[in-house]
Amino acid sequence: MRSLLRPLVLAVAASCALTNLASAADSLKVADVVSAADLKAMIADAVSGLEKLVADEKAFAEADTRVRNSASVLAAFAQAASELEGASLSPEAARTLRQAAQDLAAAKEFGPAKAAFDRVVKAANGEAAAEPPAAIEWGKVARMHPSMEEMEQRATKLRRSLKRIRRPEEDAQMAASIGILGLVTYGDTHEVKDPADLPQWQAWAVELQEGMAKTAAAIREKDAAAATGHFEAAMKSCEKCHEKFQD
Ligand code: HEC
Description:
Number of strands: 0
Order of helices and strands: HHHHHHHHHHH
Structural class: mainly alpha
Mean pLDDT: 92
Distance between the termini: 48 Å
Bound molecules: heme C
Radius of gyration: 20 Å
């Protein structure tokens, strides 16, 4: 009897393990995290913020890592636009913007940064490159360090704003921006050394995306208590993931 059951038990266990992997949390879709109207405003804000940082050589030098960080966020917004139905930019213009923002994020000198920023402006105005860049995966949109730093800074600002919601539009967009960076986090799994940990990584990234999407929705309802609840729940996923994966 034992010898007959054993293979069966093993087979069931194996298929459970497989289902576990297969049912690892799917990333949210862009449309679940941000609306086309919000994304349009967020892209415009990001571009005008960057404009000041690359206004001249002095501003660029003083901005230090803020150019890299802000351009990384803009690249993520552009990636979102490239996947969002009804986005203000065509997928071709959105991919052109994503590439230009990535080039700006990588620029070490003022000259190349300024050139990349000029391409950012054109693409943000809807002009696609003659040969638009191909689509890329979320995990390749921004480097982990700047996107984590931006999530941290944005979360700190948002936590303050949630005490009393004065600018629901702005605050909801701030929450949505962290949700979009959560799509980058989901895709960039290079810190996961053991493949068995992948579903856990993804689950926490999805928790973050969902929590920030709910935070944004509650802000729109001007429900500060609900927004704070969703926000703090989302922030728990940061902590849990750091505990396991941050070295
Ligand atoms: C799914 C996993 C995961 C989630 C979710 C996550 N992080 Fe991280 N975070 C990491 C890992 C891994 C590192 C370490 C990266 C490294 O060592 O280069 C890190 C590093 C950081 C850093 C240090 C900067 C750096 O790159 O070393 C900050 C700040 C940070 N995270 C903030 C946040 C905030 C804020 C949230 C939530 C809004 C968050 N993270 C969500 C995995 C995650």
